[in-house]
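The record is given unchanged here:
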Amino acid sequence: MIRPRPRSLIAQTIVVLLVGLTASHLLSMVVYSGDRADALTRLGDRAAALRIADAATLALRTPGAERDALVARHRGLSLDVALAAAPPFAAEPEPDAETRAVAEAIAQRLPEGAALRVRVEGPPHLPLLDHLRDAFYGEPPRVTIRAAVALDDGRWLALAARPPERGADHSALASMAAMVAAIVLAAVWVVRRMTAPLETLAAAARRMAREVDAPDLPETGPAEVRDAIAAFNHMRSEVRRLLENRTLMLAAISHDLRTPITLLRLRIEALDASDDREKMLASLADMERMIAATLSFARQDAADEPRATLDLDALVEAMVADMQDLGHAVAYAGPEAPARLACRPQALKRAIGNLIENAVNHGGGAAVRLVVEPAQLRLTVADDGPGLRPDQLEAVFQPFYRGDASRSRATGGSGLGLSIAREIAAAHGGAIALANRPEGGLLATLTLPRSGG
C-alpha cells in the first residue's frame, strides 16, 4: 500500500508544524487540565463536605419525630439524604489523604463525639484520558462523597453529595481549530515568500537552454536562496562565455581554412580537365559545406532571430507545396483548428525542412501531418524508407553522425541537420523524436508548446 507523502515544501512545512505544535498544545492542555481538575476537585470536595456537615448537624439537632420530614426536604440534585437502620457502608481501614481531609472537614462542623464514616467514590484513576476529556469537553471525573452519621435514636443518617452537572465546553476544540488555521495560513505565507525566488530560479534553469543570454536573476530571498541564485548566475555567465569562445574559435578556424581551400581550388581549376580534377573539386566543395554547416551550428543563429506569431499550418503547407513543385512525393494533412504559434520563423522553417528533406532523400517521399492539441502542436513526418536500427534513433542527433556511412554527401549531408533541428526545437521549448513505423519506414515527431517556448 502506497502512502501519500507531502512533496512540496509548503505541504511538508505545514505537516511538520501541525504535528509538532499540535503535540505540544495537547501536552500543555493535559498538564493544565490536570492541575485545573485537581484544584476543582479539592474545592468541590470541600464544598460537598460543608453541605454534608450542615445537613448532618441539622438532623442531629432536630427531634426524632421531625427527622423524617427534614430528610425529605433535604433531598436534592446535589445532596441525597436518607435514614437507615444500619451504616450504609463499612468503615475504611486505611483511608487515603483526600478521604481523611474530607472527614476532618465534616467532623469539625459536627457536634463533638458524633460517630462519622466517610467514603470518597470516583471513577478509576486514568489521568491522561480524564485530563483530555476535561480539556476538550469540560467534564472532569465526577466524585461522590458518601457520609454516614449515627443518630441518637439508633439510626444512621446516610448522605451522598454529587457535583452538579456541567454542560460540555468546546472552547479547547475552538482554540485548537484556531491554532491549526493560524499555522496553515502562516506556513503558506512564509514558505511561499521563501520559495518564490526558488520558483523563479527553476523557471530560469528550464529556460536557460533556449535563452542563455537572458539577464541575470535578482538575488533575493533568504541567504541560502541568494547563494543558489548567485551560483546560477555565475554558471550561466560561464556557459555563455564558453559558447562565445566556441563560436569565436570555429569562426577563426573557418576563416583560416577558407584561404588554403580557395588556393587549392584555383590551382585545381588551372589543371586540365580530368576525372581526378572533378573529384578534387567535389571534395573541396564538401569541405566548404562542412565548414559552413559547422559554423552555423556553433553560432546558433536561431537564438538571434526575433520571434513572430504565425500560422504554422500555412507555413508547412507552403513548404510542402515547394517540395511538390520540385517533383518530390510529399503529402500534407493539416488541422481544422488554427495553429497559431509564437516562434522564430526562419529557424523553425529550417528545422521542419530538414525533417522533410531527410524523409524525401532516404525514404523516397514524406507524409506530413500537423495536429493541434490543447497544450502543444505536433508535427509528424513519415516515410517508407528502411528506417534506422534502434541504437541509431538517438545517435543520429549527434553532430556529424550519419545513419549510413556508405551514403554519398549528396544524400547523407554533413551530419549536422538533425542536430541543428533539435537545437532549434529546444530553443522553442519543444522536442524532436524518431521512431520506426510498424509498417516500415521512419516517423519523425516535432512537438512545440503553444506558448512558443
Notes: The chain has a mean pLDDT of 79. The CA atoms of residues 21 and 183 lie 9 Å apart.
